[in-house]
Amino acid sequence: MQAYVLINCNTGSETTLISELKELPEIIEINGVWGKYDIFIKISTADPNGVEQIVKRLRNHPDIVDTYTMHVLYGQGGTIDNE
């Protein structure tokens, strides 16, 4: 299972939060971003409930204010290298 998650966090906590989230093995990409959201992550897990478990963990973090999760639809796209 793969998903992208956009995160809003408390102002000033971005750098610390990114460092913490880098330690989670299910997070395979993480970037600070400008705009409506503060952090962009990509989750990949073999567990069918893995995305839900990670998102619940994110939502319980004291510095995370809001999340927006987008589950990947398999068979529609992929990386440029795969096409």
UniProtKB/TrEMBL annotation:
<dbReference type="InterPro" id="IPR011008">
    <property type="entry name" value="Dimeric_a/b-barrel"/>
</dbReference>
<dbReference type="Pfam" id="PF01037">
    <property type="entry name" value="AsnC_trans_reg"/>
</dbReference>
<dbReference type="InterPro" id="IPR019887">
    <property type="entry name" value="Tscrpt_reg_AsnC/Lrp_C"/>
</dbReference>
<protein>
    <recommendedName>
        <fullName>Transcription regulator AsnC/Lrp ligand binding domain-containing protein</fullName>
    </recommendedName>
</protein>
<feature type="domain" description="Transcription regulator AsnC/Lrp ligand binding">
    <location>
        <begin position="5"/>
        <end position="73"/>
    </location>
</feature>
